[in-house]
Amino acid sequence: MEFPGFDPNTKLAAVYYTGGKQPHLFRIHNDVTLSRLKDQLDQINCQLNHRDTRRVVCVEYRCLLSNSVSSLRFSRMKLTNDDDVRTIFYVFGQYSTRGSIELDASLVRSAEQILKNLNRPRNYEEITALLEGPDDDISLGDP
């Protein structure tokens, strides 16, 4: 049975943005690069929060680990290159055949965006104009 729109070369992934509580589900290609993964996560964040101008700067994989007494915990693996991304699929394929690949994405504003949002005078004339205030005298008494 075929499912329309399903690509067998993808896995289900859940991303948590900067400490978020709710995961956002998406499909991730088996041969994705780290750069392309960050771009994909940026696009998802823009779709979820169209006014958010932050960019993904760090991605971590939540690798589920178990010990001999059946205790489960997550270990975080910071993705630094394409080999790390390939490792996700290897580990997930070997140990987690159900569920989703869980990722944490850290969002940060770009330096350009921060500078753009600052409201600061740019030259001496603008500063003195702000300090001097309006030319009209203001009277608080009756007119």
UniProtKB/TrEMBL annotation:
Highest rank taxon of the organism: Eukaryota
Protein name, as recorded: Uncharacterized protein
Lineage of the organism: Eukaryota, Viridiplantae, Streptophyta, Embryophyta, Tracheophyta
